[in-house]
Write a sequence for this structure.
């Protein structure tokens, strides 16, 4: 063991990382494999896992994918400086839109989900439009209040089935379709958002988070961009809501519960905020784990909360950052001059 | 109606003061405030009913316990992530969830969970019968506000509080330890929340969902009044309190929750910094 006092840890990109960032990525299979490996392995792994597990665990995979999408959307919103404590709002609106369309107007399932995705996004954006000028904790406060209030409103006015909710909605043809659909949706959301946020257009969203005043000074209407971000983020959640509604053939007050707000945040906190892939990873750790803890009932939510606090305080980096560092960089001890 | 509006306003003000104190001084939005309120009520209940400690002693000791608890939370959790707004919000929100759902798990449901009133009975004012407890709330609110004012304007610690709130770095150079003051403010905030719980909870039962309601009410009052400004909070609580009472009277009781949200929206459109907020806050929020 060397005396570490005169040493510091240095991190450099691996050679292969430097090469494959550029056009040289196409120079050999090794570089291509280096790029493809972290993307393909989870896709194939989850697909195999999902299709060969027993039925109960298939349902767990579906729930996991839903939470993963919620978490990715949360992370996207937070990358745009919109700190949301109420993913349940978007989720619930999507769920209720699909449920009502299906129940009152008998719209078939392959139409309700797209309609609910778009409409849910619109409704959520319009609901939050008056407060879009807020930032940081103020926005978080309003998003925390809204789902609770909507649930209270439905409870009080007995619209849309009131306390009992709407049951007997049309289900998916079979569990295979369901699985393929949600897994495809999840990967689509992840890769589309990752590409989107690194494009020139997506850069504006990130710059709003980093310094909104400077963005405004550059002649960009940040409120319009925030509304767009909100629409994208809430559409994804609304899709999850609509999907869940048809999966369980039910919609009701429970869609506004704290669990759908807290789970995505907890998943993001574990996985690593700001990476989009991290929250997905976090969801795939957290949800199966909580499934194992199912017998503890509501204690699970306590567990999420604890995970949240511990991760934010002790591991602010998140798992994904750690993994990507190990994958892309090498570390060595360097003697101080 | 005038009397009940007044009482409702006093309740709102009591709920919001603790939250406002913590936020105004340390800049930490304590999302665990509602949870602390309920936990405070629950601890008092268990002290009375399981340990058979007299009411007054258990109430005071709960206030102290919760104050220390709040300060400890600051020391061990918030201090490490101070200044990172997102992490602060997530962490306090997480604490809130842990506390409330733990209580739900323990089984905090039912009518047996209610605190005794201080003095039973009611008096007639303007033709309405009003419980003495409700009158006490008004009196205690006034007492708290006066003592808070005296504390922040005429004691050394109170002046340090205001110093931190205004300019943290300058107060650091004047020998005020911001972390110590901030943890003190967090402790006082939770102690105030517990005090509010002990005073207000005898009117109803202790429920887990109440914790979220308290948080919503405190937040909306603070946003309307201008975060960090005590008198803004008082004025805002009167506006919202009367608005809620009127809605409950002429429309239906379940619309009262909408009032808070509406008040937030209106104030954001008209005067985004809140009723008595400052320009500095305006920059922070819009």
């Amino acid at each position: 063991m060397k005396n570490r006092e005169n040493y510091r840890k240095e991190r450099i990109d691996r050679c292969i990382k430097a090469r494959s960032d550029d056009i040289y990525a196409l120079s050999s299979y090794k570089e291509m494999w280096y790029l493809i490996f972290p993307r393909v392995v989870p896709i194939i792994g989850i697909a195999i896992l999902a299709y060969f597990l027993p039925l109960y665990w298939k349902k767990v995979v579906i729930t996991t994918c839903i939470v993963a999408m919620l978490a990715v959307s949360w992370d996207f919103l937070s990358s745009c400086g919109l700190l949301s404590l109420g993913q349940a709002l978007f989720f619930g609106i999507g769920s209720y839109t699909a449920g009502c369309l299906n129940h009152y107007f008998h719209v078939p399932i392959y139409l309700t989900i797209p309609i609910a995705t778009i409409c849910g996004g619109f409704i959520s954006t319009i609901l939050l439009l008056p407060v879009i000028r807020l930032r940081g904790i103020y926005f978080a406060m309003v998003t925390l209040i809204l789902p609770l209030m909507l649930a209270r409103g439905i409870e009080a006015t007995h619209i849309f089935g009131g306390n009992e909710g709407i049951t007997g909605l049309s289900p998916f043809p079979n569990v295979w379709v369901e699985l393929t659909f949600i897994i495809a949706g999840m990967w689509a959301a992840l890769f589309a958002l990752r590409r989107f946020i690194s494009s020139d257009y997506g850069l504006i969203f990130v710059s709003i988070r980093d310094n909104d005043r400077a963005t405004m000074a550059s002649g960009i209407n940040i409120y319009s961009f925030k509304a767009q971000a909100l629409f994208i983020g809430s559409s994804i959640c609304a899709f999850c809501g609509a999907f869940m509604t048809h999966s369980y053939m039910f919609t009701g007050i429970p869609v506004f519960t704290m669990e759908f707000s807290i789970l995505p945040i907890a998943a993001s906190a574990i996985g690593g905020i700001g990476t989009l892939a991290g929250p997905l990873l976090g969801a795939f750790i957290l949800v199966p784990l909580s499934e194992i803890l199912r017998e503890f009932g509501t204690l699970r939510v306590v567990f999420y909360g604890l995970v949240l606090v511990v991760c934010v305080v002790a591991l602010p980096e998140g798992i994904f950052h750690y993994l990507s560092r190990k994958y892309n960089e090498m570390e060595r001890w360097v003697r101080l001059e | 109606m005038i009397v009940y509006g007044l009482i409702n306003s006093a309740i709102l003000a009591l709920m919001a003061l603790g939250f406002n104190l913590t936020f105004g001084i340390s800049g930490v939005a304590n999302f665990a405030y509602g949870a602390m309120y309920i936990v405070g009520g629950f601890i008092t209940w268990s002290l009375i009913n399981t340990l058979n400690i007299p009411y007054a002693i258990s109430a005071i000791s709960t206030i102290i316990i919760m104050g220390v608890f709040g300060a400890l939370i600051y020391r061990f959790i918030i201090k490490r992530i101070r200044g990172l707004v997102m992490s602060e919000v997530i962490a306090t929100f997480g604490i809130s969830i842990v506390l409330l759902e733990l209580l739900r798990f323990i089984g905090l449901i039912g009518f047996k969970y209610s605190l005794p009133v201080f003095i039973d009975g009611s008096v007639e004012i303007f033709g309405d019968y009003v419980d003495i407890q409700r009158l006490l709330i008004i009196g205690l609110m006034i007492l708290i506000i006066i003592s808070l004012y005296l504390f922040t304007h005429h004691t050394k610690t109170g002046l340090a509080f205001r110093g931190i709130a205004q300019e943290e770095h300058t107060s650091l150079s004047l020998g005020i330890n911001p972390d110590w003051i901030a943890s003190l403010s967090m402790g006082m905030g939770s102690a105030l929340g517990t005090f509010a719980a002990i005073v207000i909870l005898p009117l109803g039962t202790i429920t887990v969902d109440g914790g979220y309601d308290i948080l919503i009410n405190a937040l909306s009052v603070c946003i309307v009044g201008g975060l960090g400004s005590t008198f803004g909070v008082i004025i805002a609580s009167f506006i919202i309190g009367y608005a809620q009472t009127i809605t409950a009277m002429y429309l239906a009781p379940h619309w009262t929750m909408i009032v808070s949200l509406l008040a937030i929206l209106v104030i954001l459109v008209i005067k985004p910094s809140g009723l008595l907020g400052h320009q500095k806050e305006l920059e922070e929020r819009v």
